[in-house]
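Protein modeling request. Please complete all fields; requests missing the sequence field cannot be processed.
Requester role: graduate student
Desired output: 3D structure, token encoding
Chains: 1
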Amino acid sequence: MTTVTKTRYPDVYKDEKGKFFYQVFLGRDAKGKKHFKKSRKDSLKRPFTSARAAHIEAQKVKQIYLNVNLGDMTYASFIKEKFLPKYKGDVEASTYETHSMMFLHAVDFLGNVTLKKITVEECEWLLTEAKYSQNYASAVYTAFRQSLDYAVEINLILTNPSLKTKSVPKGRAVAKYWTKEEFEKILSCVSISSFYERLIYVTFLFFYRTGCRVSEAGALRWSDVDLDNGKVRFINNLHYRNKMEYELVPYLKNDSIRRTLTLDDELVRVLEDWKKEQLKYSVQCH
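Delivered output (286 residues):
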């Protein structure tokens, strides 16, 4: 028999191996059945290292389920009130901005359906009725499955009905790119006589030669570019919503893409001239 001891924090316990976990009472459904949420890990899937850490997470869970009717929650309410706030806390702001809309597509089809009444047939209906490209339909249905997985995790439903359906296979992606001749033709149409068009010229050339992401290039400072040795390092990222709302963050999507690239001689000369041009117009160079 497993031995569990209480800690000084309410709803937080320690097992016989010294591992901490919480068990929170969420409420009763329409039939009077009690529902609990139990976990040994926080929202980032990290095991609790102390009773206090488990207590902090338990308080968050309580706040999420405050005044929730567990028996009659619709899919729309679940997504907007429970899933999306949790998802927003789990991912980067930029990821949330680009992916959150995918979860709302299913709301258009199943929004007023009670969460517990979503059937395999309705999941199949979502699969067949959604008029998207194959790649996007695959992403939307994967997001739908992910949302129902979370409903299972927090004991709102017993099983995920969408797992009994086939997933949408991704279509074969055909990458479109400029050939060297096409790219040179584009650059030949850009005049470098004005500051703005020179910016376009430098930007296009830099992207083409380095293959970096837009968010990576947008976060570059001159301190990241070593013109003497022909190197550029990518260590920051730009979270951009519009010209008034953006944030420079000191990390990339994952550590494996932190890198230093070698710049070719022509690009180094272009960047040296561009830096001088910025100084000429009193543009701050960092």
